[in-house]
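Bit of a strange request maybe. I'm writing a small parser for structure token strings and I need a real example to test against, not something I typed by hand. Could someone generate the tokens for this chain?
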Amino acid sequence: MTQKRARESLRYLAVVGVGSVIDLAVAWGTHEIFGVPLVAAAALGYLIAHTLSYFGHEFWTFRRAESAYSTNRLGKFVIAGAVTLTVRLTLVWLSAPLDALPFGSLARLVFALGCSLVVGFAINRILVFGAHKRP
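Reply from user aminoacidic:
Good idea to test on real output. This should exercise your parser:
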């Protein structure tokens, strides 16, 4: 791995880490404090964190000399986000039996977040921020 790729990977992990904390805090807090159903709360947390992550990735993670707002990349990011969100919400819904555990709702959110991170990384790295696909 080149030094540039290593730095890019660390920046990616930082954006994902901050985004994950925001995502979980919004989702779990909305569910626990306001009684919003877990699937809806997971969607809200994801949408907020995903929006913030776009700007983190565009201007920091995958920055280039030509980094700037791009309707094309944003559109691809939204499509990638929709796929990732579908995976996330499906996993939150399927993991309902975990509710029986202490902190079951948090376990469901963490499980779904972890699995959907893999999907989101692959789609965003290849489709949205791929080195040869930059307009």
